[in-house]
Amino acid sequence: MTSAPPALPDDPFPRSTSPTADVLAAQRAHLRAMLAAGELDVPLPGVGRTAERWAALAEWGSADLVLGRLAEGHTDAVAVLAEAGVPAPEDALLGVWASASEGTGLRAVATGDGGLRVAGTLRYASGARVLDAALVTATEDGGQPHLVLLDVRGTGVTPRPGTWAAVGMDDSDSLDVVVDDVDVPAAAVVGPPGFYAGRPGLHVGGLGVAAVWWGGARGVVRALTASLARGEASGRAPTPHQLVHLGAASSAVARGQALLAEAAGVVDADPTGDRTTLALRVRHEVDQVVEEVLRRSARATGATPLCRDADIARRAADLAVYVRQQHAEGDLERLGRAVLDAA
């Protein structure tokens, strides 16, 4: 995590109190400009530059977590396609929509020409009205899930406004998307059945998400530092308790940075190794970093910045929601089982 971060555009990533059509169009234009400029072309994981890849993801997360979420999804899709030996489509904003929350997901029926007809509901489809295509899983009766590259701007793919109720990450446009009997050609079926969940890169991708969480935590600490500095410049010296919270939050961020740097080295040393245990441990620890940063930041400043400073309030709300992709005690149970099985 010591590599130089990528340059960010001068204009801030478009946000609003809700993802209006104008904001979504501005986000798409912003991301497409980054794509055209090569700013989304980060190194693939496991080729000796994983720390550089994660530094880019973290920097986007520090700047804006919605930007981080959408940019990470694009880079993850490119990495998954590369792992399958499939080139990414040019000039396309990509994502990965693989949630099967509460029984949702796509069903697949073979069409006889190597293609599939897919239908169902995709949850948490970030960038639902921003992206061009997404990698999604679709399962035939009794079979392993297929991975397909779905044209999300085509006929039969319908985002459902109003299906994201949270304030945090609201502008990520992570809606339910209904897919109504869409024919996917054989050329858009990626890898054999079961490829997505069975590949070595699955958990490495999960570590990339943790890098974005960590970047969001660093962004909160940067905002807290700037707030206290502004107060001191105007004659309101920080209290001893505020300094304690700032110091502890800064140390937590440094701890997360060290963990991610170590994990990047492990991935590069053996790109095809099983990274299940590593990902569970690091994601848990980054989750703990995020929780400490959010708690310390709120206690250091009190309610006023959370209620009157839009940047601080948005960062806190976004991060609290986004980090819950980590499955808390469920993942710790899996980690404990893995540790015991390896004994």
UniProtKB/TrEMBL annotation:
GO cellular component terms?
A: cytoplasm
> In the UniProt record, does the keyword Acetylation occur?
no
Tell me which SUPFAM superfamilies the record gives.
Answer: Acyl-CoA dehydrogenase NM domain-like
Keywords, alphabetical: Oxidoreductase
What is one Gene Ontology biological process annotated in the Swiss-Prot or TrEMBL record?
fatty acid beta-oxidation using acyl-CoA dehydrogenase
A molecular function annotated in GO for this UniProt entry is: acyl-CoA dehydrogenase activity
Is Oxidoreductase among the key words of this record?
A: yes
Which named protein is this? Alkylation response protein AidB-like acyl-CoA dehydrogenase
**Protein species of origin:** Pseudokineococcus lusitanus
